[in-house]
C-alpha cells in the first residue's frame, strides 16, 4: 500500500512537539524557574497579620512563596500534625508557627534543621533553641478580655468573678494553639490530678468553651459574655472596633505572665535551603519585629529594637512580657496534657 505523505508529515510534527515539550521542561527545571521552585511555607499565624509580611519578603527578594495557612479552630495543631505525617516526604520548607510548643514537638521528632543565621544572636536565650532548630520572634500575651459595660476591669474583680458561676466567661477549646499552651503550663504547675480537678470544676460551673480565641473576643465584645481568655492580637481587633473592652494580663505562679512567641524553623530535607535561610533571616530581623509591632496585632519584639518606634500599647505589653513564665521546658507537659484533653473533647 502506498504511504500517505500527509500522515508522515503529521507524525513528524508530533515528534517535534514532543521533543520541544521535553526540552522546555528540562530548561525550566535546570533554571530553577519552574513552579516547584517556590518556597513552601506553612503558617499558623493569622493570615490577616502574616500574609502581608510574607508578601513583603517576596517583593524584597523576588523569591516566590507557596503559603499554606491553618484554620482558627485547629491552629496550630493542624499544621504540626501535617508536618509529622509528611516527615519522610516533606513538602514544607519553612514553618512559621504562632507559638513554640508544637514546634518543640516536631523538633523532638527530628523534623527540623538547625540554622543560626543573621537573626539568631539578637533573640535572647530562653526564646530559642540553643542549636537553632527554632527561634522565637514577635510575641503575644495571654490576657483577660473584659467588657467594661458588664463588670469592673480590675485583676481583683476578675479573680472574684472566677470564684462563682462561669456562664458569662468564655475560653477557647484547649486542643489547639495558645490555649493548649496555656493549659500545658497549668498542667506543669498543678500536676495531672490538680489539673483534672480544676478543669472538672470549671466545666461544672458552666464556663463557655468555644472554637477559638477570636470567638471569645467576639462574645465579650458583643456583651454575650462578660470576660474571657484570649490573646493580645485578638483583643486589639475588638479595641480597634471601639468595643467596650479592656485587657488584663493573665498571671500564673508567682505572678508570672504568659508570653507566646511566634517561632520559625526550617524543615529537614528542604531542597531550597538557601531560600529558606533567607526567609528565616528576614523574619528574625529588627525591621520585621518593628513591622509586626506596628501592625494591628501589636506583637512584642523579642530582640533589641529602636524603642522610639514602638507605640504605647506595645511598650505596655513589653513590660508585662518582661515578667513572663519560662515556657521552653513545657514540651513533655504539652503532650501529656493534650492526650488527656483529647479524651475530654473528642469523644
Q: Short description, anyone?
A:
This protein is 45% helix and 16% strand. With 347 residues, it is an alpha/beta fold.
The biggest beta sheet reads: 10 strands, mixed
State the share of residues found in helices, binned by percent.
40-55%
CATH topology of the largest domain: D-Maltodextrin-Binding Protein, domain 2
Number of helices: 12
Mean pLDDT level: 88
Low-confidence stretches: 1-35
What is the element string, with H for helices and E for strands?
Answer: HEHEHEHEEHEHEHEHEEHHHH
Q: What gyration radius follows from the Cα positions, in whole Å?
A: 24 Å
Terminal CA distance reads 75 Å
CATH class of the largest domain: Alpha Beta
Q: What is the number of independent domains?
A: 2
Structural class: alpha/beta
Shape: globular
CATH-assigned homologous superfamily of the largest domain? Periplasmic binding protein-like II
| Total strand segments | 10
Describe the structure.
The protein folds into two domains: 36-139 and 260-310, D-Maltodextrin-Binding Protein, domain 2 (3-Layer(aba) Sandwich); 141-258 and 338-345, D-Maltodextrin-Binding Protein, domain 2, CATH 3.40.190. It is built from twelve helices and ten strands. α3 (77-85) packs parallel to α4 (101-108) and α7 packs parallel to α8 (232-240). Strands 1, 2, 3, 4, 5, 6, 7, 8, 9 and 10 form a ten-stranded mixed β-sheet that branches. The radius of gyration is 24 Å and the shape is globular. With 347 residues, it is an alpha/beta fold.
